[in-house]
Amino acid sequence: MKPCRGKFNSELVIMLFFLLTPLIEILNSNLLMNFGGDSVLGKIYRFFYILAMFVILFKDRFRKKSLNKIIVFISIITFSATIKGICFNTNFIETFFIGSKYLLPVMTFIVLEELNNKNKLKNDFFYSVMYKYSIILPFTYILPLILKMGYYQYSNHIGYKGLNYQINDINIIFGCTSLFLLYLFIKTKHIKYATLTLLNVFCLLYMQTKTSIIIVALSLLVSGLQYTKGRNRLIKLVIQIMVMILIISVISTKFQDQIIGYFARLNEMYVYMTKQGYSFFEFLTTTRSSRLSQIQYVYDFDKLSGYLKCLVGLPEKQFLNSEMDFFDIFFRFGIGMLLFILIFFIRPLIIAIFNYTYSKDIEDAQLLCIYSVMILFSAFGGHVLMSAYSGAVLALVGYEIIRRYHFIRIKQGEVKCH
């Protein structure tokens, strides 16, 4: 018996780029903290992510319609970067790379749709990992809220970033999972995908950032373009999604209070800056640190810290360990992989526990249990919480690859490669 020969696997490339995003953002953030400068690593990573999507598109000769959609979104980002550069005298390339993060979930979604249309997705591999990932990801944001832990622990529990450092970039991942789950829901009409979609969208909106709002809008747009034909169906789809979001907002009064408080503090800060002679454009383009220095003499930080710190931001070293280095990052990264290996050896016990409840899908149940316990353990790892998580995710991918692709299984007397 010989193992399967390795081939260029489109969905594996997409998944690796997608799952590596948290680790890249950790390294990028620590580069900024320890050495200053610009977020070069994140830009390079997004560049190769987008490049990989185009390589997959052209390699498999996808429909011109899908390519046109991506070109439209790139044109929008380019136009926005040009306008911002003219109005605010900002660097075009800098603005374009910042805007490119909004393109990633859209491109990922369109490429996945094309792969599926051409029957090139290995469903038992790709969907298994991505589906579990879409379940685990919200809890990297919800779990710290429950345990009162994570980055930026403000008063009133406002501004939590959970296990994630770069909240805007994590929004990108939530956008990808939301689109992925919406795709599964529309294809299967299964209630579990609708529930998970709402959970991911809720986390996306709960972060209260411009990035999350833009991603939700883009998600509505791209899903409407992809799955509806005719104006009436598009209107119905948008209304349905907006009603679901409205229900979530009504149920969560804390979410409403935070939104109201956010815009109230934003208005107060704008009034103060206009009294100081700043124009509206200057208010929009002022850096976070300068906003902080202008407003800290007016407001009492003890009373308003929850809103103001969330709004204007504070230097990261006041909240994180300034002595943290790359050894610490990779140490926790290794811990995540070791946790996965250790928990893997108690699989028989997990199977026995879940055998009664999930007898129909025992493999997915015990794997999901492994990943969930692994995330729970890594949540107590210290400041660089996502490092252990990223290590565990890579171990997850490695395990799935070995189990499904490079082992030969004998089923019913036939040798099959997976």
TrEMBL record:
Coiled-coil zones: none
Transmembrane segments: 12-33, 39-58, 70-86, 92-112, 124-147, 167-186, 198-222, 234-255, 329-354, 374-402
Highest taxon above the source species: Bacteria
Keywords recorded for this protein, A-Z: Membrane, Transmembrane, Transmembrane helix
Name the UniProt record assigns to this protein: O-antigen ligase like membrane protein
